[in-house]
């Protein structure tokens, strides 16, 4: 391995009121004695006062009558009918995560305002039959190799059997520690901001650890990548072999902060704070190319040899830029209203634009089909040849053929409440031919068969509120 300090692949360089009545004219008139005698003025004043009293009594009589009834009868006041008032609901959508392992699905639900704590339960994927539930609040969880790794509120790590929830092993962790991920038969823990520790998922055996390497960024093709800021204004990317923690290489960056770090097919793409995107080959640390991104661009995704950027220009329609991942050259650009990259699968790029969905050919951006949703800000998920379009405010899910855009089916929750909800439903996940839709009317999750929206089962979500 070459000395990365000597061969730096990142080097570069927000009326006045006027009274219009005349004062002398205002002093004249009927009640000032210019035309009537003193007796006439007295009787007229008396009659006027009596009339006013009668009028006030007539206006207030219903209230006086209502108030006098309990005093005369000794009973409690009788409530009069009022016009119903619709209150805006204070309910917020929960955070729901779904992970499937074979015939079993594990789900975690937590209140939005306390999303780092929630309860998990496991159920049979096809029937919704609950197999087991956690009796503890869970910070994080994951499923790997028929095991569920969870972190309790005391930060301790526990590994459970996915079939019955029985505990296989547990390990205490220091306050502030985090369980980052599980892969290759291991579970990774960050006891502090710069250390990574790997335990064997099957029995909790310590496998390897590295100090002073920063946070785990990505695991790809059996290699773990970390980033640590410093010393000074520089940062360091480290690559470790997952199996045994062997250091494969280090890459020094000129910035102590990175905007993005993505590994794809053996190439490390580093987006620096100065907007330089650098491509490095992992095997020999060679810089393949360097190019500066647009000032208003965000890296959306790198997949199948192409890099996708969302570009935002205030007062101007947004667009998508696409580069070659091989050499950084521009491939194509797509303009359409406020367009945003959503996903790329099977040679098709899916984008949303305010109230529509478009499908573009990956290699050249040619429009394949366009669909107007009829509602604003559609949420999109692509899975197994279908595009699922969700209006969270209307509680509607539309399914389209991903290749042709042809309509397949539409599903809407039955909402009967009198409260105004900002979110009626949302898709929690799509796994193994099942679409999981959360209804905010009754806090239920509905499992729909993906090919025909048939309801397989429905179950209420139990959420523990913070004390």
Q: What this model shows, in words?
A:
- The chain is mainly beta and 467 residues long.
- It has helices at residues 23-27, 38-73, and strands spanning 95-101, 104-110, 119-124, 130-133, 138-144, 147-152, 157-161, 167-171, 178-183, 186-190, 196-200, 206-210, 215-220, 223-229, 235-241, 247-253, 258-264, 267-272, 276-281, 287-292, 297-303, 306-313, 316-324, 330-335, 339-345, 348-353, 356-361, 367-372, 379-383, 386-391, 396-401, 407-412, 425-431, 434-439, 444-449, 455-460.
- The chain starts with 22 loop residues before the first helix and ends in a 7-residue tail after the last strand.
- Mean pLDDT is 79; it is low at 1-90.
- Keywords: Membrane, Transmembrane, Transmembrane helix.
- The chain crosses the membrane at residues 42-61.
- This is Pyrrolo-quinoline quinone repeat domain-containing protein.
Keywords for this entry:
mainly beta; 36 strands; PQQ_b-propeller_rpt; 4-stranded antiparallel β-sheet; 9% helix; globular; Pyrrolo-quinoline quinone repeat domain-containing protein; 467 residues
């Amino acid at each position: 391995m070459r000395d990365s300090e000597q061969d730096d692949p990142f080097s570069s360089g927000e009326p006045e009121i006027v009274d219009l009545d005349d004062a002398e004219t205002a002093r004249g008139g009927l009640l000032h004695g210019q035309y009537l005698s003193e007796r006439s003025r007295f009787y007229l004043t008396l009659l006027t006062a009596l009339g006013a009293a009668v009028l006030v009594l007539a206006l207030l009589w219903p209230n006086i009558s209502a108030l006098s009834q309990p005093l005369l009868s000794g009973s409690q006041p009788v409530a009069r009918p009022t016009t119903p008032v619709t209150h805006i609901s204070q309910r917020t959508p929960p955070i729901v995560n779904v992970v499937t392992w074979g015939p079993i699905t594990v789900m975690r639900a937590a209140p939005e305002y306390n999303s780092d704590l929630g309860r998990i339960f496991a159920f049979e994927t096809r029937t919704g039959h609950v197999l087991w539930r956690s009796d503890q609040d869970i910070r994080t969880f994951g499923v790997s190799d028929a095991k569920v790794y969870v972190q309790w509120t005391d930060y301790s790590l526990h590994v459970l059997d996915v079939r019955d929830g029985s505990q296989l092993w547990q390990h205490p962790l220091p306050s502030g520690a985090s369980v980052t991920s599980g892969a290759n038969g291991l579970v990774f823990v960050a006891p502090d901001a710069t250390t990574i520790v790997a335990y064997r998922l099957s029995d909790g055996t310590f496998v390897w650890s590295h100090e002073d390497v920063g946070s785990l960024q990505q695991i790809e093709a059996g290699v773990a990548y970390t980033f640590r800021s410093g010393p000074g204004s520089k940062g360091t990317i480290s690559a470790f072999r997952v199996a045994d923690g062997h250091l494969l290489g280090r890459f020094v960056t000129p910035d102590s902060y990175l905007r993005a770090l993505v590994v794809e097919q053996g190439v490390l793409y580093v987006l620096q704070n100065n907007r330089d995107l650098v491509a490095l080959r992992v095997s020999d640390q060679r810089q393949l190319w360097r190019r500066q991104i647009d000032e208003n661009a965000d890296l959306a995704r790198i997949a199948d040899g192409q890099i996708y950027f969302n570009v935002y220009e205030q007062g101007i329609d947004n667009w998508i830029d696409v580069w070659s991942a091989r050499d950084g050259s521009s491939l194509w650009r797509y303009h359409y209203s406020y367009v945003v990259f959503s996903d790329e699968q099977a040679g098709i790029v899916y984008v949303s634009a305010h109230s529509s969905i478009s499908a573009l050919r990956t290699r050249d951006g040619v429009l394949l089909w366009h669909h107007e949703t009829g509602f604003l800000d559609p949420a999109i998920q692509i899975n197994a040849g279908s595009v699922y379009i969700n209006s969270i405010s209307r509680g509607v899910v539309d399914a389209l053929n991903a290749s042709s855009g042809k309509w397949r089916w539409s599903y809407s929750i039955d909402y009967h409440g009198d409260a105004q909800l900002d979110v009626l439903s949302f898709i929690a996940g799509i796994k193994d031919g099942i679409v999981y839709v959360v209804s905010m009317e009754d806090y239920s999750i509905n499992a729909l068969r993906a090919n025909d929206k048939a309801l397989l089962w429905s179950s209420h979500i139990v959420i523990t509120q913070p004390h």
